[in-house]
Write a structure and sequence with these properties.
Chain lengths: 418, 396
């Protein structure tokens, strides 16, 4: 108790001092005024780091110092001392390639906006030395300077009460609006897997960083999709999208077999760009080289193959190269003088094919298809159905010759879309 | 390091070779030629039954392959056992005379026309005037005789036998020495032979029971002014178009083929005018009823007798041939189509069709198994039967 009494004034004095000090400190950090204004261009800050998994990371650390000097001296970039305060993170790495190295620099925004891809530059050097890396520093610096120019900055001035009044400048990157005007229902595929749909107002907006690029894909059912890349300037961008309708009809010709049989084709896309039904007429009447038998000046019996099919193209409708498949039925007629009836071979057949189509532009496309057929055989009674034709197509009989499986035929064709 | 590199290179090369082999194998198994529509044996219409198929191989070219004539052997046509023996000829565009073929059982024999051993050397065989003989073989004419043709087997050759001279037949005509203009045999019940005699303005059909003739023939029917009626039927090769011409005489028209049906009670024949220079021919089919009423003339080419009808070619062009089934007034009661590179009507025979022994009209059709990759070609002769019961109303 006595001890407490003796020591009480000193303790109270200490507590009082702490309170006063606290008050003093609060008074120093008190904001007296805060004003905001749009300033000029602010340089980007760069923090350089080294990939520790690279060979000889110690030498890379040394190179990173020289890269920093290069950037300070020859670019509009400034070097940040802390990664958390940097706008751009540059990672320096190297990979050994036989007796030399690939020196690699990758620059990425610390808080990426839009879909700006990381800047990557690499160069082969004999050794991880300063002299050998000079050219790399120069070129990489140039590219960084071009990729990350100074940005308009909003300057906030905060005046605080301090013993020595000082002004702190905070640089906040300015935004700009991207406005997309598109038909309602347009699907926007944004960076990082994000998707958005244009609503009934026909407008979609997003604030994005100025002086940046933004890539997206716009898709509208029945129309040609668009891959767009826009540059976001200081005033923002308004994108008014107009879509080109996908073809509903495609007409064309196939050229089949070594006899150059011309096969007229029509295809109707009930799901534009993807699913279609079609028909064609394949006939020996339309063969440019009719006979493969030197005894025959002309064929006595011609075949007319009426083919109906349905199919689908896979992948993106605007891809220049697309694959697809077809399934179909066909009926074959034999025709000649005094003869017009269902053919003995393949009066009914099922067909299946795989195709590849190349978009040639202006509505034209070229395609190649491989097609197999399962044909019904109507042989005269007493005749082996496996040999009713001379020559039989390459293939093999099934169900004791009632059916015949034809090996693939490969043909090419062209289409024009309407 | 080097070893690893070498191993990788070898593996890459192996993969490339495997891929190339797979691609080549894939391409090799693809069809690169358009589908053929060459059926060596074509499917026929309902009612036709395939009796037999004969094939022979040849190095000769097969373009414009066709039959010359077809005839049935008399004996085997009526025995009802399998397919009767058949005589026919096959030719291509380069052959003047057809290859004479005898088909019997499963055997195909090529008959020599010019064998030294035979009496008629070379044998003249009128392929347009063939008909049944009640014996083996068939009958035709060599110009001055009615002859029987059959094969002799060792070696195979034509064996002609004179049955009667035409002059002898004419000497027993109802009006003696009337020119014999047509002649036909029969294996069915009734008259064995019938002849068509030119009596000046009239034509008469007379029955001849046996050859050689030894008694006056019996007149079945006589048709006054018949030839004038027939000549009036020509539309293209007319006397007006060819003034002062007599090159198709004697008799104003050539009587080429003749046949008759006892059950149908009529005789038919082909009257032909031909312009050899222009290679033009006009044929008329003439039917004479046994009742002696007016004859009927129509611009058709006869195929032959079947049951109580005569079959006539409405269309004789490959691959679809069409026959009309004509009654005694040459009215079409039905039509039959038959398909092939060529077809020939062989005649009527008793055969087993659909398990039943029945009379049927027999046809031979031609097909080929030739490919451009081989010099060897195969000719396919198919024998089809069409029951005479289907002639009028078609198959059930």
């Amino acid at each position: 108790m006595t001890r407490l009494t003796l020591r009480a004034p000193a303790v109270l004095l200490a507590l009082l001092s702490l309170v006063l000090l606290q008050n003093e400190l609060q008074a120093q950090s008190k904001v007296l005024s805060q004003t905001e204004s749009v300033g000029g261009l602010a340089p980007r800050s760069v923090f350089i780091t080294v990939d520790s998994a690279s060979p000889n990371p110690a030498r890379l650390e040394a190179l990173a110092l020289f890269l920093g000097l290069e950037l300070e001296a020859k670019t509009r970039l400034v070097q940040a001392t802390e990664e958390a305060k940097a706008d751009i993170i540059v990672t320096l790495s190297a990979t050994a390639v036989r007796t030399s190295f690939d020196l690699i620099g990758v620059a990425a925004q610390r808080a990426p906006a839009g879909n700006a891809a990381p800047l990557r530059y690499s160069a082969r050097v004999n050794d991880l030395g300063i002299d050998q890396a000079k050219a790399f520093f120069a070129e990489f610096g140039k590219r960084l300077d071009a990729a990350y120019p100074p940005v308009p900055a909003k300057i906030t001035e905060i005046v605080t009460e301090r013993v020595v009044q000082e002004t702190e400048t905070l640089i906040i990157v300015q935004g700009a609006w991207l406005t997309i005007l598109a038909p309602p229902g347009t699907l926007l595929k944004l960076p990082a897997g994000e998707e958005a749909v244009v609503d009934d107002t026909g407008e979609w907006r997003r604030e994005l960083e100025q002086n940046s690029s933004f890539g997206y894909r716009a898709e509208l059912a029945g129309h040609l999709p668009q891959d767009r890349l826009v540059f976001i300037g200081a005033d923002g961008v308004i994108e008014a999208l107009s879509f080109e309708e996908l073809d509903r009809w495609r007409f064309g010709l196939d050229i089949r077999y070594g006899n150059f049989v011309l096969v007229p084709q029509a295809e109707w896309f009930f799901v534009p760009g993807t699913f279609f039904v079609g028909g064609g007429i394949e006939s020996s009447y339309l063969a440019l080289a009719q006979s493969y038998d030197h005894d025959e000046e002309k064929l006595l019996v011609h075949y007319i193959d009426l083919q109906a099919s349905a199919g689908a193209y896979l992948g993106r409708a605007d891809a220049p190269l697309r694959s697809g498949f077809t399934l179909g039925l066909a009926t074959r007629l034999d025709a000649g003088k005094g003869l017009f009836r269902f053919a003995d071979y393949a009066p009914v057949s099922a067909r299946a094919g795989l195709r590849v189509s190349w978009d040639l532009g202006k509505g034209f496309s070229a395609m190649a298809e491989a097609n197999v057929r399962l044909a019904l055989v109507l042989a005269p009674e007493g005749v082996d159905p496996r040999y009713i034709l001379v020559p039989m197509p390459l293939g093999f009989p099934l169900a004791e010759g009632l059916f015949y499986f034809e090996m693939p035929t490969i043909f090419i064709g062209g289409r024009y879309g309407l | 390091m080097k070893r690893r590199h070498a191993a990788l290179t070898a593996a890459s090369a192996f993969a490339a070779i495997t891929l190339a082999a797979a691609v080549l194998a894939g391409l090799y198994s693809c069809n690169f030629l358009m589908p053929s529509a060459n059926y060596p044996i074509m499917r026929q219409e309902k009612g036709f039954s395939l009796l037999r198929v004969y094939t022979f191989q040849t190095y000769e070219k097969l373009d414009e392959l066709s039959f010359g004539f077809g005839a049935l052997d008399g004996i085997t046509s009526m025995n009802g056992i399998g397919s009767p023996n058949i005589y026919l000829s096959v030719r291509n565009r380069y052959s003047k005379e057809g290859k004479l073929i005898h088909l019997y059982g499963t055997i195909i024999d090529f008959l020599d026309r010019n064998l030294e051993a035979v009496p008629h050397n070379p044998v003249f065989l009128d392929e347009k005037r063939t008909s049944y003989d009640s014996a083996s073989g068939f009958i035709t004419t060599d110009g001055s005789n009615i002859i029987n043709i059959e094969n002799d087997t060792t070696p195979p050759y034509i064996l002609p036998t004179v049955l009667d001279s035409i002059s002898n037949i004419e000497s027993y005509a109802d009006i003696i020495s009337s020119p014999l203009r047509g002649f036909s045999g029969n294996v069915f019940p009734g008259t064995i032979y019938r002849g068509l005699f030119d009596e000046g303005t009239a034509l008469s059909v007379q029955s001849i029971p046996v050859l050689p003739s030894g008694a006056t023939h019996t007149v079945i029917a006589r048709y006054p002014n018949a030839m004038d009626t027939i000549v009036a039927g020509f539309t293209r090769l007319t006397d007006t178009a060819y003034p002062n011409s007599a090159f198709w005489n004697p008799g104003k028209a050539e009587i080429r083929r003749l046949g008759f049906t006892e059950s149908g009670s009529f005789t038919w024949f082909e009257a032909v005018r031909r312009d050899d220079i222009a290679d033009d021919e006009e044929a008329l089919l003439v039917a004479m009823k046994d009742s002696g009423s007016a004859l009927t003339v129509k611009p058709l080419a006869a195929a032959g007798t079947a049951d109580k009808y005569v079959l006539a070619w409405e269309k004789k062009e490959a691959p679809g041939f069409r026959l009309a089934v004509l009654d005694s007034s040459l009215n079409a009661v039905n039509k039959i189509s038959i398909y092939g590179i060529d077809t020939v009507y062989l005649g009527e025979a008793l055969v087993v069709v659909e398990g039943i022994s029945q009379n049927a009209a027999l046809f031979a059709t031609l097909g080929v198994r030739a490919s451009g990759s081989s010099d060897m070609r195969e000719v396919v002769i198919s024998i089809f039967a069409y029951p005479t019961a289907y002639l009028r109303d078609g198959p059930p």
